[in-house]
Design goal:
About 25% of the residues lie in helices and about 25% in strands. With about 110 residues, the protein is an alpha+beta fold. The protein has one domain: Sulfate adenylyltransferase, CATH 3.10.400.10.
Length: about 110
């Protein structure tokens, strides 16, 4: 277990705020940035990474998009296309899902 650099796992302030509010419970990244049991802190709230799973873009569902703070998969796809220059959605592209939750004992 290790303490993660918050900006590595959740690179935007929007996502950090949404995680703190309970609206974001996972993030997909192009590479693995954490292991289960790793922790990070947003303001005074500690979070633990509970699962890290290799997937593909084609595996994503509306539920995945909602767990990342988006309305649906189409909105998530549009966000990725705006955020990453020369991004093209390819169902076979490999990604890594990082799921996390607040640690017990947080107020």
């Amino acid at each position: 277990m290790s303490e993660l650099d918050l900006s590595e796992l959740l690179p935007s302030e929007r996502m950090q705020t949404q995680a703190l509010e309970g609206d974001v419970t996972q993030i997909h990244r192009g590479h693995q940035y954490a292991d289960p049991g790793d922790t990070f802190t947003i303001e005074d709230t500690a979070f633990e990474v509970t699962d890290v799973t290799e997937r593909t873009l084609g595996d994503l569902t509306d539920e995945d998009a909602q767990a990342e703070g988006m309305d649906d998969l189409e909105a998530y796809r549009n966000l990725l296309e705006r955020a990453h220059e020369n991004f093209e959605w390819d169902d076979d592209s490999e990604i890594v899902r990082h799921q996390f939750e607040p640690q017990s004992g947080n107020d």
